[in-house]
Amino acid sequence: MMISKRTSTEFVEEMLGVDMEKMAHKLVTECKKQWEERKRRHEITSKAKIEKQNNLLRAIPNTWCKLVKSQITPCPKCKKPEIICSSWHMKNIHTVEIKDIHDIWRDICETTKLDQKRITRNEITQVSNIKNT
Ligand SMILES: [Zn+2]
Predict the structure, then answer these.
(1) How far, in Å, is the centroid of ligand 1 from the Cα of 3?
(2) Which of 38, 42, 73, 98 counts the most CB atoms within 10 A of its CB?
(3) pLDDT tens digits, 19-54
(4) Distance CA 12, CA 26 (A)
(5) Same domain? 28 vs 83
(6) From the CA of 8, how far away is ligand 1's center (Å)?
(7) 128 and 77 fall within a common domain
(8) How much is the pLDDT for 107?
(9) What is the 113 CA–ligand 1 centroid distance (Å)?
């Protein structure tokens, strides 16, 4: 993922559909279990599969990552590193209306949750038609 480290962990976890702390803890537990098996010269069991939610970023283009990244980058118009190019800043300082990234994310989720295995173009069009009415 081409998202900056400064993006909030909660938002990244939501996008990836994983609890990273829980996943890391489970991986450590599985590795310890395998290590104990190796020490005892037992047959090494394979790691238990880590549960993941559905990937809500499936088929989402890289432009989404650019958009997420823009929320933590300095405003190109103000050219001051402390001023972040958020939708609030763009609206209130430059009078440029940009939809909030969390609102866009909710729209993406509605589309990608339609059918986790296969989303047809018609289903995507139906969702966007409902939103526009
Ligand atoms: Zn600015």
Answers:
(1) 21
(2) 98
(3) 888 888 999 999 999 999 999 998 988 888 777 677
(4) 19
(5) no
(6) 21
(7) yes
(8) 85
(9) 35
pTM confidence score: 0.61
Phi-psi region of 45 (alpha: psi -120 to 50; beta: other; left: phi over 0): beta
Q: What are phi and psi of 74, to 5 degrees?
A: -65, 150
How much distance in Å is there from the Cα of 96 to the middle of ligand 1? Answer: 10
Do 27 and 80 belong together in one domain? Answer: no
* Confidence at residue 92, expressed as pLDDT on a 0 to 100 scale: 93
User: How far apart, in whole angstroms, are the C-alpha atoms of residue 102 and residue 8?
Assistant: 12
78 and 48 together in one domain: no
What domain range is 44 assigned to?
10-53
Helix 9-16 vs helix 101-112: crossing angle, to nearest 10: 20
* Structural domain total, the chain: 2
**Distance from Cα 81 to the centre of ligand 1, integer Å:** 10
Question: Measuring CA to CA, how many Å separate 100 from each of 59, 81, 118, 133?
Answer: 21, 21, 27, 20
Residues of the chain with pLDDT under 50: 115-119
Output the pLDDT for position 117. 44
Give the pLDDT of residue 35: 95
**Token pair belonging to 67:** 């958009």
